[in-house]
Design goal:
The protein is built from four helices and twelve strands, in the order E-H-E-H-E-E-E-E-H-E-H-E-E-E-E-E. The protein is α+β, with helices and mostly antiparallel strands. It has one domain: 4-Layer Sandwich (Deoxyribonuclease I, Chain A).
């Protein structure tokens, strides 16, 4: 079980994102039953205020809830069809959920549906949270594979973000299935006004050359940078890490977890975190 309070100051904020790899995948020695203890090791080593998980099936979410008694859960679909994969946010108990929005990345986002360019139904979860020292918006998603589907999904996501305070600091965490060279990334990180973004543009917690985040249970440097930890508003990035180590002898997923630490600033609107400033990418090995 991770410590009950991962932070010591009200101004500090940590975030983690991980594509969990759906629990019914035929992964042989890396199947869910064998790697969940590695995930427990990760949660003990790197707890965060906000933890976002993609591809989480119901029984995996239940397991996470047991491991994280001091964290709440937002974004699970109930009832859900068999094999449904959730995109969930686990906020620490010191952050109170004020509003939540779970929707589909399609022309009919309030109904279970998919884009005609998307292979699978895709979804997102956004929450408005309140805690020391104020409000924060956190969103998580998992995009499909084609560029057309990604751009359509990004448009839906940005439209739903308009329902939340534009001046509030925000985190956007997930598996985007594309690299920072993609139109989807450019749309999310475009300068204010260029892409019609509500509020300031998002920034990546990592800098070029962007580190690989998918490793297919092979370890090493990883492949493409398709998992992103984006932020905007009154957040100053202090540290960002790709967690490439093994935990309890194994990898928690076929993707690497991303972890970052921020300092909350007094700014409530505008790109306070100084575009172009990035903390070093650090590869860490589990204890």
């Amino acid at each position: 079980m991770p410590p009950s309070d991962p932070l010591n100051t009200d101004a500090a904020l940590t975030a983690l994102t991980l594509n969990l790899r759906f629990g019914r995948a035929a992964d042989g020695p890396h199947r869910w039953e064998n790697r969940r203890m590695a995930l427990r090791g990760l949660l003990r080593a790197r707890p965060a205020d906000f933890m976002a998980f993609q591809e989480a099936m119901d029984f995996q979410v239940d397991w996470l809830r047991e491991c994280l008694p001091d964290w709440r859960c937002a974004g699970i679909r109930q009832p859900a069809p068999a094999f449904w994969q959730n995109n969930v946010i686990f906020p620490h108990r010191r952050w109170r959920l004020r509003r939540a929005d779970h929707f589909y990345l399609s022309p009919t986002p309030d109904l279970p549906s998919r884009s005609r360019h998307s292979r699978w139904p895709r979804q997102a979860t956004i929450g408005l949270f309140e805690g020391p020292p104020g409000q924060l918006v956190c969103a998580t998603t998992h995009l499909d594979f084609s560029e057309e589907a990604q751009l359509e999904a990004t448009a839906v996501l940005l439209k739903r973000l308009e329902r939340f305070p534009a001046g509030a600091p925000a985190l956007l965490l997930g598996d985007f299935n594309c690299t920072p060279a993609s139109p989807c990334y450019r749309r999310l990180t475009a300068p204010p006004g260029e892409a019609g973004l509500p509020g300031p543009a998002f920034q990546n917690a990592f800098k070029p050359p962007f580190p690989g985040t998918f490793h297919g249970f092979q370890g090493g440097a990883g492949r493409r940078h398709i998992d992103w930890l984006l932020f905007r508003g009154g957040l100053r990035l202090m540290e960002a890490r790709v967690l490439r180590g093994r935990y309890d002898g194994g990898y928690p997923s076929d993707h690497y977890p991303l972890w970052a630490r921020f300092h909350r600033t007094a700014c409530v609107a505008g790109p306070c975190s100084a575009a172009g400033r990035h903390a070093p990418v650090t590869e860490v090995t589990a204890d």
